[in-house]
Amino acid sequence: MTLRGWALAAALVLSGPAIAAPSDAPGDTARAKAVITRTKTTGTTYAVYTWTVIRLKGAEPVEEWSAEFNSGKLHRVETPRDRVVANCQRKTAAHYSLTDGTTKSGAAIANTACGIAYDDAIRQIAWLGKHPSPWGEVDRVRLWGAGLIRTYDVTKAGVIVSSTFAPEDNPGKAMLEMRTVALEKRLPKGAIFSRASLARSVVAMKFTLPPRP
């Protein structure tokens, strides 16, 4: 998700020996790459608020909020433990950890924060067609690599509105499920993409509460 809080944690916990992607993996690789690129290069102004459920082996399920904001080439990610600001065009970013109070920067952080994370660990990708969603028609893409199978739904504007992570050795068992609860065209007030803005959250309280059934 991806530096998306638990998404990142899940990627680290679940990563393990590489397992070959199915030889009959469906879809068009070129179209999948185009969708991934769309998430990384979108210039759309949006605020997306999501709710994530994490199910790690030997632990009780964990539920929590996350949010992402975009304006042109500038991007911001928030979770209860992380705040990230990035310039997705320049591939620069800063990550502030609320857990230990440290701030790190670098292109690797930008790659994770800006759209779908894609690097040398990915062995295969697939486009799984167009699907309806509460946020309009989406393209569904799937990536295999680093011990995970990651599936994303992406809008025409390049917004990730849904994601699911599963271990490659047990693809039917979702370990992370993220769903959008609100998608807005307006951003919180202030200079929310500056490094100094990492000192505070810009997420309204209502988006940190469990969504209504």
TrEMBL record:
Keywords: Signal
Signal peptide: 1-20
Domain of life: Bacteria
Record flagged with keyword Signal: yes
Protein name in UniProt: TonB C-terminal domain-containing protein
Organism, scientific name: Novosphingobium aquae
